[in-house]
Design a protein that fits this description.
heterodimer, A: mainly alpha, 8 helices, B: mainly beta, Porin, 18-stranded antiparallel barrel, 18 strands, globular
């Protein structure tokens, strides 16, 4: 099981290399992988760099500022970059920033609950998942990896 | 739920279900509608039309500990509407689960649950039903032991398929009774996944006891199963069960062999062939469904089944067509104990469509041709499932 975990993280990191992310992000990736509970700043950073909305030299604080320009990011207006986000919030940001297709209800009432269901349906979220459960940095990278594969299939 | 006590209990459970989201629990509502039309029209024309709407309000949550152990809770309350019964409220699930990844010094994984949940024995035919009880599993990586026990007397009779004895059928027709027959059961299964290369061997025993005062009928079953791959894409399953009621000691049997062949290169096809047979003495604890139009019951029944399921656009990205699937299914029914060995043939065609996470549609058209020159029966069925 540990082998598959390491393999998943390796694939996630490798995907990020392919998306041109691997400059100064070595240190950032280490920080993310070490997080038992993902911070808003690191979550925003990795998603926005992956979508090429910010430069990889940006900081997590700058990523959170940039996040406010997105519909899904407006809910974090009063949050600090060091605040933790839960699985539902991260998935909501992922669906919005990486433009993953929405289901019926997430189109009408966008939010973490419906985003989680949409991404579970698409196979991007695997394993046990609840909106308010914590998300580790390692799991966040694996989710981004699968979301990028999904986006690639679409193109 | 007619008694004030039961109504109060149900209201309390529903209040609890509605309040759990305040504590960070996930929740949702799903609505499933089944509309069916049967032909030829019966004498009472309205009996040809069937409509069932089921609304399920669910919630769940889980907690994990530092050593990866997990605790969870899941609950689901339902409202059911049918043409002959405007409402029924029930608690379909209330399950507390746990999983401990390392017990006996890391030699095994322990997991289990308690409450109201869906229980199925490994054959899927002896008991396949909601129950109130507990189950426990120890997985020694290669050998898994599963133990389960439960009670059926707290289930609403209207949604229950626990029909084993004549007394159960009498209770089913008794309007003064609202709950399912009072039976307890115990099952223990041992699953070997490394005894034979790439094969899964299951051995188990199952027993049930009637707790009512008179006309008690208890039964005991033993079963085994073997599943695994035969070649690339080709899988088989063998199931055998013996069962006896402890009063008459008549021995019943069930035997089933199935095989499936997956051929992704041909429209993501799955071909399946299966044969099931039982003798008259084989009596399951819960009702088993053998067909969509023709359902002869599991005693003294034999069925040959051939099916082909395909998803022609399964490799496309667009979810609108990716999850569009078709299935054609042929069943021949036999009763080798009767003078007329062949019961008839049933053929159904199904279209399944699930474009998004919250919408699913299924359309089934079927025909049953009884033997002996009897007119065929037809069924059209539309299922729509919507999640909120």
């Amino acid at each position: 099981m540990r082998f598959f975990r390491q393999l998943g993280v390796f694939i996630a990191v490798f995907s990020l290399v392919l998306t041109g992310l691997f400059g100064q992000t070595n240190q950032m990736l280490d920080e993310i992988l070490a997080q038992d509970s993902l911070s808003l700043g690191h979550g925003a950073y990795i998603l926005l760099v992956t979508s090429q909305a910010i430069d990889e030299a940006s900081t997590p604080a700058q990523a959170v500022e940039e996040l406010l320009a997105y519909d899904s990011g407006s809910r974090f207006a009063n949050h600090q970059p060091t605040d933790t986000i839960d699985l539902g919030e991260f998935v909501y940001l992922t669906q919005d920033i990486l433009e993953i297709p929405r289901g019926l209800w997430s189109s009408v009432f966008p939010g973490p609950r419906y985003s989680l269901r949409d991404l579970e349906f698409l196979g991007i979220i695997q394993g046990q998942a609840a909106t308010h459960s914590i998300i580790t940095g390692e799991r966040a990278l694996r989710i981004i990896n699968r979301a990028l594969s999904e986006r690639e299939r679409r193109q | 739920m007619k008694s004030p006590k039961n109504t109060t209990l149900l209201v309390l459970v529903l209040i609890l279900l509605f309040s759990l989201p305040l504590f960070g629990f996930d929740f949702g509502l799903s609505v499933d509608s089944t509309t069916s039309v049967s032909l030829p029209l019966p004498a009472e024309a309205e009996e040809a039309l069937g409509q069932r709407i089921k609304a399920s309000l669910w919630t769940d949550h889980f907690w994990t500990t530092n050593n990866d152990a997990a605790l969870g809770i899941a609950a689901q309350g339902i409202y059911v509407y049918t043409l002959d019964r405007p409402y029924l409220f029930d608690l379909e699930r209330l399950e507390f689960t746990y999983r401990i990844p390392e017990v006996f010094g890391g030699a095994a994984i322990a997991s289990g649950s308690a409450g109201r949940f869906f229980y199925s024995d490994p054959t899927g035919y002896i008991l396949n039903h909601r129950i109130d009880g507990a189950r426990f599993s120890l997985d020694f990586r290669g050998t898994e032991v599963r133990i389960g026990a439960g009670y059926t007397g707290l289930l609403l009779k209207e949604e229950s398929g626990i029909l084993y004895s004549d007394a159960d059928f009498a209770d089913q027709n008794d309007t003064s009774k609202t709950l399912s027959p009072k039976r307890v059961f115990e099952g223990i299964d041992v699953i070997f996944t490394q005894l034979l290369p790439r094969q899964r061997l299951t051995l188990g025993v199952f027993s049930q006891q009637d707790l009512r005062g008179s006309e008690q009928e208890h039964s005991l079953y033993g079963h085994l199963g073997l599943t695994g791959p035969l070649a690339r894409g080709l899988f088989y399953s063998l199931t055998g069960a013996l069962g006896t009621d402890l009063e008459s000691a008549n021995l019943g049997y069930l035997a089933q062999v199935t095989s499936s062949y997956f051929l992704p290169s041909f429209a993501n096809s799955r071909f399946a062939l299966g044969f099931l047979t039982t003798n008259e003495e084989f009596k399951p604890l819960s009702l088993a469904s053998l067909g969509n139009l023709h359902n002869p019951g599991l005693s003294s029944a034999s069925r040959l089944q051939v099916s082909w399921a395909l998803r022609p656009w399964g490799n496309y990205y667009n979810p609108l067509i990716r999850n569009l699937g078709f299935e054609i299914d042929w069943k021949s029914f036999f009763d080798f104990a009767a003078a007329e060995k062949t019961d008839g043939n049933e053929v159904t065609a199904t279209v399944n469509f699930r474009p998004t996470s919250d919408l699913g549609v299924s359309f089934l058209g079927g025909m049953y041709i009884p033997s002996g020159g009897v007119d065929p029966e037809f069924l059209l069925q539309l299922l729509v499932s919507l999640g909120f």
